[in-house]
Specification:
The complex is a heterodimer of chains A (about 650) and B (about 260).
Chain A lengths: L4 E4 L2 E4 L3 H12 L4 E4 L16 E2 L11 H11 L6 H20 L14 E2 L9 E2 L5 H24 L6 E4 L2 E9 L2 E9 L5 E5 L2 E4 L20 H9 L3 E2 L4 E8 L13 H4 L3 E3 L23 H7 L15 H13 L9 E4 L6 H7 L1 H11 L8 E10 L2 E2 L13 E3 L16 H23 L10 H16 L6 H15 L3 E2 L1 H18 L12 H25 L8 E2 L7 H4 L1 E8 L2 E8 L5 H4 L4 H7 L2 H4 L16
Parallel strand pairs in A: 1-10, 2-3, 2-11, 3-7, 11-18, 19-20
Antiparallel strand pairs in A: 4-6, 5-6, 8-9, 9-10, 12-17, 12-21, 13-16, 14-15, 15-16, 21-22
Helix pairs in contact in A: 1-4, 1-11, 2-3, 3-11, 5-15, 13-14, 13-15, 14-15
Chain B lengths: L2 E11 L2 E11 L5 H11 L19 E4 L2 E4 L14 E4 L6 E3 L2 E2 L2 H9 L18 H11 L6 H5 L1 H4 L11 H12 L8 H6 L11 H5 L6 H17 L2 H8 L17
Helix pairs in contact in B: 3-6, 6-9
The chains are: A alpha/beta (about 650), B alpha+beta (about 260).
Chain lengths: ~650, ~260
């Protein structure tokens, strides 16, 4: 076997999107030698596709906004299944994290008095999203990338080597984490350019690999979203939380077929766009669920007044949380009131002047013009739901982001809990920053706690096994084409584990997944090791199949409908099920599912809600000792 | 609506290679990247393509299509006649890794040499106040998705590899302009723009602007104003006198020393 390069770091961050870079910056600022490993080039991560903005209760547009309001919105959006502690930390720390980006050079859009402008979004009571037109994710990734470069320049001055303290390994894929005595010892992977293998030895690993959307056919996600971090965590002995919750973004492009799934930002609705069915009716007024009745307008007139006078009018129902909007679109299409290509219409052309659309939504204009020959300043867009985000993820401690395996941390989309059963738009970019920083800090502390001499080493047996596994598809002759297995998986997940689920289809899906696993174990990759996408995909299949198994099993188990999990055979939300988290772990090579009680919310946080609202979510037993009223809200400081 | 397109795709690595002929199905509304993906999935599993978002937002799938630098994900097949043969080659300015994937590390090295954003340390968290009209100039440049099509096109390095040392290329001269126009930046990069990053080598032929998929006016809004600022700094007699008598700083923020390759 060829020599395998071994590199030693204090902290290894897998993933170079928003959370990975923020974690790496924090670890480096804590004085730790840090490696960032990215499947793509530096600065290309999926975060660039985030359009709308980054939610933070800075109160720049409406002084009534504060962390308590943001916390409430987040819990409502997640249908009270969120890790309330994460939602609390997130709401409290997001403003500082946004301002920090500004100190690193980010240029957000401004208010008239020179502060960061904030825009309306679904489920947020006040305008809360810091943004740059509709390319906020790009601004964020570039700012973090440039912050890494700034730190490297400091290191160049101090150590004569820009990569002395923080180094980015671009186009490198990790296929295994290694553990020693139950603790993290490092990571094994390959360099995409050459196919060479590489071992990173480190006592602390931060997973920041994003989501799982590439298991679905219609998705807004890029090729990178193959559930790598979810699978690596499982294989290393950690557990995944509530994997049944997969968000379908209500507005993806649907025509022409080749662009199906590409995201249309929620900002279109935040900035005044409305959803229409084939009869030209604003159908969302008919779909406001009871739990949200009090906060949403009942007439078009009231909804339209809200844009100008939000304090005296209720919000338009187009700005309900994403799960509600996606389901409503699905119902309209099923009732025969869809658009020609099987979606509904999203209209901003008749609602706002052309120059305002061009100024506020330039990349949407560009995207529709170039890809669909549609001028969104003149005609409505055709849209439909697209797989966008997974709320489920690695089970972590809410304060430290530590997984159950010592030395393993997770932040951003790959981690679970923060968003409950449904994420609000804008809460992802802020999640990346808040918990990326916390994960980086915890990883640095963990590295400190493991004395240099006592660091677990990556054993030769583990490396040999990882090499064998990686090379298998190349060495197997005459097997199936990995692209075919991937396409079959995407078809299966979209058709049977998609927006609306039922017991029969889920059981069928689990049986099909068994067959796909057998097929994936026999795929062959043609060609050599240098930059060979067929070989890369053959390896990614393991991760996608593992994660899909978790999603399907959890979806079958949870017999209710909540957020990003809708069961046609159990259409109601159940307060009893709200008390239960579903946790997946590996037992041998089988995914095993367990129920776990939800930790009851702290009294002072419960006090932020009216009793009438809590009654919609909690059981009578839980409410027993509860004399609600928002007056008891504690204002304790964190940090 | 489907038809079969004739594709000539460069296959090979490290300077060795050749154009290979393929016939691939094309469906309504597809872009070049869709067709390359179909080729990869059905006929050439190991065809190396770099791509990510397939929505024109990440700048990964840069290549040359019939000789023109483009993003494969934003180039619709309907641009070409069905009978037209499409010749698809890697970016010419950068070394080929394999097939359509090139080594763009030159760009990351240049990025690391430019002195970073330097705010006034006295401004606290959340205290920046900037007007929209002032941030808009730099915001235009921050639309850049780093596809490096401008770097690939600029003849200063495309036809003259010897200039790779003294010349940072349009993308990074624009980065300098972005920082210079950033309302909260305090550093001065005008001298080094000329001396270390080769702004003077740019002869404003606007090729970079022409290929920019984000429609950034690189030449008009970044490079020419930057040249004017350099002239003001280096050749204005009053500024020269000011520097002589010590009323103005002698030099700007130096390029980062250890960061150079």
């Amino acid at each position: 076997m060829t020599d395998i390069e071994r590199l030693s770091y204090d902290v290894v961050v897998i993933g170079a999107g928003g959370s990975g870079l923020r974690a790496a910056i924090e670890a480096r600022q804590a004085g730790k030698r840090t490696a960032v490993i990215s499947k793509s080039l530096f600065g290309k991560a999926h975060t660039v596709m985030a359009e709308g903005g980054c939610a933070a209760a800075m109160g720049n547009m409406n002084p009534n906004d504060n962390w308590q309001v943001h916390f409430r919105d987040t819990m409502r959006g997640g249908k009270f299944l969120n890790s309330w502690r994460m939602a609390e930390l997130h709401a409290k720390e997001a403003p500082d994290r946004v301002w920090e980006l500004e100190a690193w050079g980010a240029l957000f859009d401004r208010t008239a008095d020179g502060k960061i402008s904030q825009r309306n979004f679904g489920g947020h009571e006040y305008p809360r999203l810091a943004h740059v037109g509709d390319r906020t994710g790009l601004e964020m990734i570039r700012t973090l990338q440039q912050r890494v470069v700034a730190l490297q320049q400091e290191d160049a001055r101090e150590h004569g080597d820009p990569e002395a303290m923080i180094r980015v390994f671009a186009e490198t894929t990790i296929t295994r984490l290694t553990t020693e005595g139950g603790s993290i010892a490092g990571a094994f992977g390959y360099v995409r350019d050459t196919g060479d293998f590489v071992v990173f030895e480190a006592p602390a690993v931060v997973l920041a690999t994003g989501g799982i959307g590439k298991s679905y056919k219609v998705t807004s996600n890029s090729w990178e979203y193959t559930g790598d971090g979810h699978a690596l965590a499982l294989l290393a002995g950690a557990s995944l939380l509530n994997m049944e919750f997969v968000q379908l973004h209500p507005t993806g492009m649907i025509w022409p077929p080749s662009v199906k799934g590409i995201l249309v930002t929620e900002s279109v609705r935040g900035d005044g766009g409305v959803l229409l069915n084939s009869e030209g009716k604003r159908f969302m007024f008919g779909y406001v669920p009871d739990v949200f009745r009090a906060q949403y307008a009942e007439t078009e007139e009231e909804a339209d007044r809200w844009y100008e006078d939000p304090d005296h009018n209720r919000r338009p129902p187009e700005l309900l949380p994403r799960d509600e909007v996606a389901r409503s679109i699905n119902s309209e299409v099923k009732a025969g009131r869809g658009s020609p290509h099987g979606g509904v219409f999203l209209d901003i052309a008749s609602r706002r002047p052309a120059e305002e659309i061009l100024r506020r939504l330039p990349s949407m204009y560009h995207q529709f013009k170039e890809l669909a020959d549609v001028d969104i300043t003149k005609e409505p867009m055709e849209i439909g739901p697209t797989c966008h985000y997974v709320m489920g993820g690695v089970e972590v401690d809410p304060d430290t982001q530590a997984a159950s395996v010592p030395g393993l941390f997770a932040a951003g989309e790959v981690s679970g809990g923060m968003h409950g059963s449904n994420r609000l738009g804008g809460n992802s970019l802020s999640d990346l920053l808040v918990f990326g920083r916390r994960a980086g800090r915890s990883a640095a502390r963990h590295a400190d706690s493991v004395a240099a001499a006592g660091r677990p080493a990556v054993g030769h047996a583990a490396v040999d096994a990882a090499v064998t596994e990686a090379l298998a598809p190349l060495e197997r002759d005459g097997g199936e084409n990995p692209y075919e297995v991937h396409a079959a998986l995407q078809e299966l997940m979209t058709d049977q584990v998609g927006l609306i689920r039922n017991e029969g289809e889920l059981q069928g899906a689990l049986a099909e997944l068994d067959k796909l696993r057998a097929r994936a174990a026999q795929v062959s990759a043609e060609g050599g090791r240098a930059y060979n996408p067929g070989w890369h995909l053959a390896q990614d299949l393991r991760n996608m199949l593992l994660v899909s198994d978790c999603v399907a099993q959890s979806a079958l188990e949870r017999q209710e409908s909540r957020g990003g999990h809708t069961r046609s055979d159990y259409p109601e939300m159940s307060p009893e099920w709200r008390k239960i988290n579903l946790v997946c772990a590996l037992d041998g090579d089988q995914v095993k599912l367990a129920r776990q009680p939800v930790v009851p919310m702290r009294e002072d946080l419960l006090g932020l809600f009216d009793l009438a609202e809590l009654k919609k979510y909690l059981t009578d037993d839980e409410l027993a000792g509860q004399t609600a009223g928002s007056s008891t809200a504690a204002q304790e400081e964190t940090r | 609506m489907s038809y079969k397109a004739a594709l000539r795709v460069w296959r090979g690595d490290h300077g060795e290679g050749d154009l290979a002929d393929y016939t691939v199905e094309v469906n309504e509304g597809e872009v070049v990247l869709d067709v390359l993906h179909r080729l990869q999935a059905t006929q050439a599993n190991d065809l190396a393509i770099r791509w990510n978002c397939k929505a024109g937002k990440c700048g990964s799938c840069s290549m040359e299509i019939n000789g023109r630098p483009r993003l494969a994900c934003m180039t619709r097949m309907s641009v070409y006649a069905p009978e037209e043969v499409l010749t698809i080659t890697p970016l010419r300015t950068f070394p080929v890794i394999r097939d359509l994937v090139t080594d763009v590390s030159f760009n990351y090295a240049k990025a690391r040499e430019i002195p970073s954003f330097t705010p006034d340390p006295a401004v606290g968290l959340g205290e920046f106040r900037m007007q929209q009209v002032d941030v808009e100039r730099s915001q235009e440049f921050r639309k850049c998705i780093e596809c490096y099509l401008c770097q690939n096109t600029c003849h200063v390095i495309r036809d003259h590899p010897e200039n790779e040392r003294p010349f940072a290329g349009p993308r990074f001269l624009m980065r300098i302009a972005e920082l210079e126009m950033h309302p909260a930046d305090t550093a001065d990069r005008r001298e080094i723009a000329q001396d270390d990053f080769g702004l003077g080598l740019c002869n404003i032929t606007k090729c970079c602007t022409e290929v920019c998929p984000e429609n950034i006016k690189i030449t008009d809004n970044a490079l020419i104003p930057m040249k004017e600022r350099v002239v003001g700094r280096k050749y204005d007699p009053l500024v020269w006198l000011g520097a002589k008598i010590g009323r103005r700083p002698q030099h700007d923020t130096p390029a980062v020393p250890g960061a150079k390759r």
